[in-house]
Amino acid sequence: MLALPPFMLFLLGFVMNNNVSMLAEEWKRPVGKRRKDTAVLRYVICSMTQRSMIAPIVWISVTLLGGKCFACAFSINVPLEKFGNVSDHRLSEIDMLRLLAKIPCKEIFDGHALHLPVVENNSRSGRGTSKVNMSLFRTVQAFGWAFLLVTTILAFLARAIRPCFTQTVFLKTKYWSHYIDIERKLFDETCTEHAKSFAKLCIQQYFEGISGEIRHLHQQHRPLHNSKDSDEDGKDEIEKLRGVTDQEDMNKVLRTGTTANHLST
Amino acid sequence: MERFRMVFQFFQSNTESVANGICAMLTLASVKMYTIFDFNCPCLPKYNVLYGMGVMFIPPVVLFFVGIIVNKHSVMMLEEWTRPTGKRKKNPAIIKFMFTNLIQRAMVAPVVWILVTLLDGKCFICAFSVSVDPSRFNGLPNVTGLDITRVLAKVSCKEDIIFQNNTSRKAVSRYLRCWSQALGWSILLFLIILAVVARCLKPCFDHAAFLQTRYWSNYADLEQKLFDETCSTHAREFARKCVIQFFESMHEEMCQGMILPLDEEDDHLHGITSRKQVNELLQAWYRSKPDLDVTKIAQRQYRRARVRVTWEGDQNKGRQAFKPNGHSTHTDV
């Protein structure tokens, strides 16, 4: 409970960070015309690691300050001599260890076999618990606060000392790591715009091709009809129809469109 | 001008209000942490003082460092302190001003924790119960095998069996709580008076220098923000031109000798007009990213802009030369 969830939270922090894919791409790409800057990769890894470490540290601090984890893990290592006259018990070693392991479980622990002092009511939770349990809690809380203090001082030193060294390198790597991210986004945007224009022209080209065929057919059957209409109606509206003016022609267009896709303009 | 003023005011108020907001949140967090903290006094002579003082002083140290870490002004102050002088000389008053502001904001949460601890009294009772003079309190339990120090150490543990049917524990507890609360209220009163005096007397001491220092420290903060924003805009524009230059260079490579004139404003195709060309472009983007140099496209756009301005200028001159009444009004520019 103390090691596995923080590790999972750390990995989750990496997974949910958008920069992971950017980092992977930049690391694996061939050099080509643009040389790779390892300082940028290091900067991205450091900032991702810092952000991912927050959740595990909070988990560990809360677990230690709560005290239950360590109490569960280390109850068998409690020095019993501190808690009164426990030397005259008639238990074998295995039975003793089994009994000590039950200390955190208040419902099934019976301290009378070891003559351990019992406290009737815990001040916070109002439930009965043993002095041994509370001693473990205090030790664990002390560890928790010490861990929190050390982590905070390390974070403070890391933040305070950085401007004294390599500030120019830091500014450069910050700019270029932001640039790589923006360039990826803009390339995707440019490709999307390109795809839209491509599709528009492709469809336009297709309609022009098919309407040429249809106009040719129409002119063979009704040679004078269309020229008169195009003088009287709005020219824009007629042009949008691209010569497709009845149901049969439209069905033909749709049928041909689904069977033959031409990807060039 | 109006827009610039609005942006300036937004940034100025935003930095300070963000810092004040963080300070308030940390203060509330410290009060909440104290209320949910499970305080269990060890009730042993040597450990009571350690535990009590530890709970009173270690969390404030943590809160102090956290207050400094989350405040952006700490980094700003260090950068201003460590930067080379260059063309801008350093003003130690600005660094002192930033440092003072930083420490003031970072001290609020720890002081609140200590005050709450003292006003509540549990830590004080736990730490100093062994230091009480036992002769002041009648009726302390006389247990064989336990000296008076150990008995006094158990004052915080009301469940302990030696204090059953004995009211002296409550007397000692109340006495220590009284001292603790008196100390807490005195510290609070002292701090409030100090704050009032400092605020009232500040204008009496070189107010002009203070206004200048405050202005220039705000300026340094805004300048840093605007520099970051400008770099961000620059990176965006750089990336846009780099990508367009890449598209055009791929078009030149693919259609050697058949280059069509491209209209940059409307044409999103940039000359890439078939599936094969698109696939080659995407492969080339991965295999060989373009060099970080957009001089060519930037110069071309600059030349086009100059030509447009000159052409519009000539048009305007032409219009001025031929007015509707027929007289030509040639003006020298």
Automatic annotation (TrEMBL), chain A:
GO cellular component: plasma membrane
InterPro entries the UniProt entry points to: CALHM
Keywords annotated in UniProt: Ion channel, Ion transport, Membrane, Transmembrane, Transmembrane helix, Transport
GO terms (BP aspect): ATP export
Sequence intervals crossing the membrane: 142-161
Annotated membrane topology: Multi-pass membrane protein
Domain of life where this protein originates: Eukaryota
Localization (cell): Membrane
Gene Ontology MF annotations: monoatomic cation channel activity
Similarity field: Belongs to the CALHM family.
The protein, known as: Calcium homeostasis modulator protein 1
Origin species: Acipenser ruthenus
TrEMBL record, chain B:
Membrane-topology descriptor: Multi-pass membrane protein
Protein's recorded name: Calcium homeostasis modulator protein 3
Annotated TM spans: 21-37, 49-70, 106-130, 182-201
GO terms for cellular component: plasma membrane
Subcellular location: Membrane
Keywords: Ion channel, Ion transport, Membrane, Transmembrane, Transmembrane helix, Transport
Entry similarity comment: Belongs to the CALHM family.
An example molecular function term from Gene Ontology annotations: monoatomic cation channel activity
Stretch list, region Disordered: 314-333
Pfam families named in the record: Ca_hom_mod (PF14798)
Keyword Membrane assigned: yes
A single BP term in Gene Ontology: ATP export
PANTHER family in alphabetical order: CALCIUM HOMEOSTASIS MODULATOR PROTEIN, CALCIUM HOMEOSTASIS MODULATOR PROTEIN 3
Keyword Repeat attached: no
Species, as recorded: Acipenser ruthenus (Sterlet sturgeon)
Superkingdom of origin organism: Eukaryota
Main location: membrane
